[in-house]
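Entry 14. Ran structure prediction on the chain below.
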Amino acid sequence: EFILIVEDEAMLSEMALEILRESGYRTLAASSAKQTLEIWQQHRGEIDLVLTAVVMTEGISGTDLAGQLVAENPRLKIVFMSGYTSHEMSQELLQSLNASFIAKPYGHADLVKIVRNSLDKLPAATGKAAPERTA
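Output, structure tokens:
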């Protein structure tokens, strides 16, 4: 699977790239909304998941950017990352974008798990897989 990482802090971007590449994912990184949209135009049909910071320095938020990308490709998976807690993000927003959330700082295993769960379409708004339902 192909993951686009949107993070304006270079150290965090490099860490996510390394973790996901080591886990077997193809990755690209963007440091701004403008760069993200340029990459999106070139690879739109290939990108399976966007891992994006919520707060970005360029004026457009990660949530606005994700909304724009999901409008173009409703099957696109989104994982938001932020230093704030998931409770500060609207649950309606997460649901409307079929998105998940991971808090910064995150560990290697947490990032890999939420990405895998998101790609497998498991609800994972807190970074934890939903409990199995029994009939």
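The helical segments are 10-22, 33-43, 62-72, 91-96, 108-119. Will compare against last week's run tomorrow.
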